Amino acid sequence: MGKPTGFLEYEREEAKATSPKERIKNFNEFHEPLSVDKQKCQAARCMDCGVPFCQNGKVIAGMVSGCPLNNLIPEWNDLLYNGNMEQAYNRLHKTNNFPEFTSRVCPALCEKACTCGLNGDAVSVRANEHLIIENAYEKGYAGAKAPHVRTGKKVAVIGSGPSGLAVADQLNKRGHSVTVYERDDRIGGLLMYGIPNMKLEKHIIDRKVNIMKEEGVTFVTNTNVGKDVKAADILKKYDKVVLACGSRHARDINAKGRDAKGIYFAVDFLMSTTKSLLDNGKLVDGTYVSAKDKDVVIIGGGDTGNDCVGTAIRLGAKSVTQLEMMPKPSKERTKSNPWPQWPRTEKTDYGQEEAIAVFGKDPRMYQTTVKEFQKDKNGNVKKAVLVSLEPQKDKKTGRMQMVPVPGSEKVVDANLVLIAAGFTGSQKYVTDAFGVSVDARTNVATKEETYETNVPGVFAAGDVRRGQSLVAWAIQE
Ligand code: FAD
């Protein structure tokens, strides 16, 4: 414990965010980190509790609380406070292959379980992690370290999201020769083509991928395994195969008029913007889905929906509405949701903050969904018929479900509709190609401990096995 009285002496202080009206002028990250000295004081707030819930990713009351990677948080908070930066990096890197990603995009399950948060503000674990990893790059601790000996064993990893990258990193370090196959033109999975630049600038991914290349990992892009390359050829060529293909089967919405033009899945919309920015250095007409001067309706109140709000505003949307089926959560924890459970509270994320600044109101409409899309004469979506929902117990199962309220229909303008309703599992062409079994949710079924599928030598990890989740879980898997 760096400073026993730290949590009494220092208040939580956070990185300063550029104002919403200023930051929407570009797609850059928008937080200015604290100075090194100030961040060290933040590390001094860690109480090094006897039971560090922060590092103990566990399911409590149906939700995970604490770090899925079991990051040794009190240890590196102490090392950071004492200025032992290289050792802090070594301890951080011991459990987390990619702190440069998690310190930017993780919802910080650790902070929700921090004991300081029981009576006050949690320790700023994510910002401490950010300083440790960025300092490690600056000082050269995070550079390439290729294995001294090769085992002669070959592994193919299918998919280059955080789970595929973590698999590749671990196995390469053990001396196996790893080839990562990716169907997109760039490495990174949803880190690259899902999470927008504002949360994770893409040169951060390239920086790590280049180190992995130097360390000996081979990356093959624009190659769709199961289509461009036969699964049988992969199985013949490699000793082991790991499927890290993500959970990419987007959940659709079943509403009249769904076939109208101008309705996109969130990831396709977000990917088109990121790809255009990366390919051209700026947005070039015709290479992305434009939101300019459009009334944008986003179906889904979660994080992906919020990313769509922030992106649509940067693209010049005329209005943005975000629909959420569930009731508005409370501002504070309720009695039935005590610390250290994951807090089921209202969160106003960066995109929603920006909508409030630009349009003067929160874009979210709770307990609402789309009943119908109306088209113009060219088949383009023009309006959306919304309907309110109310909770009702299902007579057969006894489970609560949201049902439409008769007569609550309301028509809104909608020239661009984005479906951010989540993902439902693996893609059949890949699982069929490898002959692996899937569970009832179409996630790849594996043995509990080894993550091996029913096909000997074929393993699965990340969203393809776990279902739609988080970057920290993808790395952990
Ligand atoms: P993915 O990242 O989906 O990567 C799978 C890769 O496999 C893809 O690149 C795909 O092209 C490739 N692939 C699939 N099949 C094949 C094939 N047959 N051949 C070759 N390549 C193939 N999580 C957070 O923690 N924080 C966030 O802020 C956050 N924001 C998100 C925002 C959005 C818009 C979305 C959609 C998700 C977000 N997530 C976030 C969730 C997180 O991105 C995922 O949980 C994580 O990326 C899953 O990692 P993965 O490696 O399992 O799969």
What is the molecular shape?
A: globular
Rg from Cα? 23 Å
Beta-strand percent range = 15-25%
Low-confidence stretches: none
| Major β-sheet annotation | 5 strands, parallel
Mean pLDDT: 96
Strand order of the largest sheet: 7-6-5-8-18
Cα(first) to Cα(last) distance is 30 Å
Number of strands: 18
Ligands in the model, by name, code or SMILES, are: flavin-adenine dinucleotide
Give an overview in words.
- The chain is α/β, with parallel strands linked by helices and 477 residues long.
- It is built from 19 helices and 18 strands.
- It has helices spanning 6-9, 20-23, 36-43, 73-81, 85-95, 99-105, 109-112, 116-119, 125-139, 162-173, 190-193, 202-214, 231-237, 266-280, 303-314, 350-359, 428-434, 463-466, 471-476, and strands at 16-17, 31-32, 58-60, 63-65, 154-158, 177-181, 218-220, 240-243, 263-265, 295-299, 319-323, 364-365, 368-375, 381-393, 400-404, 410-413, 416-419, 458-460.
- Strands 7-6-5-8-18 form a five-stranded parallel beta sheet, with helices on both faces.
- α14 crosses α15 and α15 (303-314) packs across α16 (350-359).
- The radius of gyration is 23 Å and the shape is globular.
- The structure holds flavin-adenine dinucleotide.
- The site of flavin-adenine dinucleotide (FAD) has 41 residues, from α10, α11, α14, α15 and α18.
